[in-house]
Amino acid sequence: MAVVVVRDCEGADDFLDQLSPRGEIFGGTESGGSRPDLGDAWIFRGVSDDSYLLIPSALRNENSFLKFGGQRCTDNDSQIRAEIGILRQFFNLADANGLPLPEDSQTLRGSIQRMLSEGYFQELDKGEERWPPRELWSLLGIGQHYGIPTCLLDWSRRPLIAAYFAAQEAAQKLSEIRDVSAAEDKKLCVWAFAVDRFASRFDKEDASFFGEQRPPAAPIVKVTAPHAHNPNLHAQDGLFTVELRDVKDKLNGPIDRKPLDEIVGELLSDRDMTLFHRIRLPWLHAPHLMWRLRQENLNRATVFPGYAGVVQALEEEARSY
Q1: Is 265 exposed, middle or buried (0-12, 13-18, 19+ CB in 10 A)?
Q2: Do residues 288 and 304 make contact, with C-beta atoms less than 8 angstroms apart?
Q3: What is the pTM of this model?
Q4: What is the DSSP letter of 131?
Q5: CA-CA distances (angstroms) from residue 276 to 20, 136, 166, 242?
Q6: I need a surface site. Which of 171, 249, 259, 309 has the fewest CB within 10 A?
Q7: In this predicted structure, what is the pLDDT of residue 318?
Q8: SS3 of residue 229 by DSSP
């Protein structure tokens, strides 16, 4: 059984059937859907181009921070310094403009300051700390959601939200191509990740109960951030995943830019289980998919609540791709 299963769909209706919580893939009793109290059996991420990898924005290439005035990141030291640097700038400017920030406290402010010190980087180099620390997760979440490069990867508990993001950008790009035959090989994609099933492999209590060897701490974790004061995150039922990087004796070493599915596959190479579904649809069907999603009341206004979202939804409706 492969860690990643690829499913190609013939049309928009087939695509939506594959994503349905009543369908073949996600219709099992273990699916918690959008009920966080029941767990997140599957989480979803939509991309307009199937060639896009599951790599966070901060790690996609060495130039991720240039547009914010940062430097190229060529090793783990410069990478982590860039990540904490942009986060501090985001925090300070948002705070200076009176914007609420999640879990703001003197403790958080002190932690941000400490992480800029050489002492903290010595702790990372000794393996006494992993990046990023838990106290920054909520702040990273709101920064990620509004566009700064972070080590978080966006997901949604709702498959149709993921489908909207994949379809909207694909339909937009398709409308800008004069010869649609040039897009015949292009596919949009929704990734599904069995995040809780993955996490269970690192559950120390379960391992003890079954007499198994005590597992290490999970290197990839699910991150939820407060929905209050973040209407976009709330509307999109958003959450994140993050890889907790152990850079012991590797601060001056190369940056690991492997995608999430490859990391998971290596971690569980001895397990015969499917943890990802990669559900694809040709770009030529993106306009029909957008129409179907509008029937489900999914448009720019519902995923980006506010006056700007309403205007963008009107433009989206008029465009008709």
Answers
A1: middle
A2: no
A3: 0.91
A4: B
A5: 16, 27, 17, 16
A6: 249
A7: 81
A8: coil
